[in-house]
Each structure stands twice: as structure tokens, then as C-alpha cells.
Specification:
Shape: rod-shaped
Largest sheet: 3 strands, antiparallel
Helix content: 10-25%
Number of helices: 2
Number of strands: 11
Strand order of the largest sheet: 2-1-5
Number of domains: 3
Structural class: alpha+beta
């Protein structure tokens, strides 16, 4: 590390080293000149000489795909604050396929499917009508249920009109 010659002795920049005191079983840090890094340092607790150890914490950065990455790297990327597994190369700006997922079409439960099947059977027999009393054909049952139209089991008003 370069120290300019005009700095006073108290402001000289020195690296920080870690030392281990065996009698205290403690780790402490000390600012030392590079030329004295391997010499033992007295422990601040018991004043016994302590040897230098490798750092217990280490932070490093590298670049991957042009982005600064912390080591160890988990291989993930960030997109607008969300962790994603890959970068996006095309598509709508500020949208990522992993973050902005399309809502899947809701699936009907087993009970809903059996209820629609029963309604289609009733519509085939002519026993199903909408809220206005109009007859519903079996092919219209699913659309009526999806749109929330009132479907009820009743005899339609216009069931016998075509027989005159």
C-alpha cells in the first residue's frame, strides 16, 4: 500500500491484520506496517505474543456478465429488486419473465366440473333456465356459469310456445 511521504506518522495508511491469542482464545485486529506483518503482536487482554492468522471474514468482488458480483456468487441476478436465475435479453423494458409471470387460467375444481355436468344434463332435459326464464342449451351452460349469469333449475317460460 502506498503512503505519501508528506503524511504525518499518525496518518500513515497501514493494512489491518488479524491475530489469535491462544491463552485468551480470542481474535483481535491490529494496524501494522507491511514489513512487520509476520511478527507476533501482544494481546490487548493478556499482553502475550499472538501470531497472525488468515482473515476470518473476507469480502471480494468479481465481474460476471458485466455486472459486479460478490464472492461467493450464488449464480443469481437481480431485476428491479427481485432475484432471478438469468438475465433478460429481449421483451418489454423493465419486465422480466420470472418476475412478471402471467396469471394461469383458473382451473375448475372437481365439484365445479360435476355441477356443470349436472347442469348440462338438466339443460338437455329442458329443466334449466336463466334468471329471466329463458331456456338454456347444454352448450351455453359453461359460458353462463363463467359470466356469472343466474342459472336455475326451473321450467323455462318459452318451453311450450313452439307447439301451437
Amino acid at each position: 500500500m502506498y503512503n505519501p511521504p508528506y503524511l504525518p506518522e499518525s496518518l500513515v495508511l497501514m493494512p489491518l491484520y488479524e491475530y489469535f491469542c491462544e491463552p485468551c482464545n480470542g481474535i483481535f485486529e491490529e494496524l501494522r506496517p507491511i514489513r512487520e506483518f509476520s511478527e507476533p503482536v501482544p494481546c490487548p487482554q493478556c499482553y502475550k505474543d499472538s501470531p497472525r492468522i488468515m482473515p476470518t471474514s473476507f469480502t471480494a468482488f468479481t465481474f460476471r456478465d458485466g455486472y459486479p458480483r460478490r464472492i461467493p456468487d450464488d449464480g443469481k441476478f437481480y431485476h428491479l429488486g427481485h432475484k432471478v436465475s438469468r438475465l433478460t435479453s429481449s421483451g418489454v423494458p423493465n419486465e422480466h419473465p420470472e418476475v412478471n409471470k402471467k396469471e394461469p387460467k383458473p382451473r375448475r375444481s372437481k365439484g365445479d366440473r360435476s355441477a356443470i355436468r349436472d347442469m348440462k344434463i338438466a339443460a338437455a332435459k329442458g329443466e334449466l333456465a336463466d334468471a329471466y326464464g329463458n331456456a338454456i342449451s347444454p352448450s351455453e351452460v359453461t359460458d353462463a356459469v363463467d359470466k356469472g349469469k343466474g342459472v336455475q333449475q326451473a321450467t323455462p317460460h318459452n318451453a311450450g310456445r313452439g307447439l301451437d
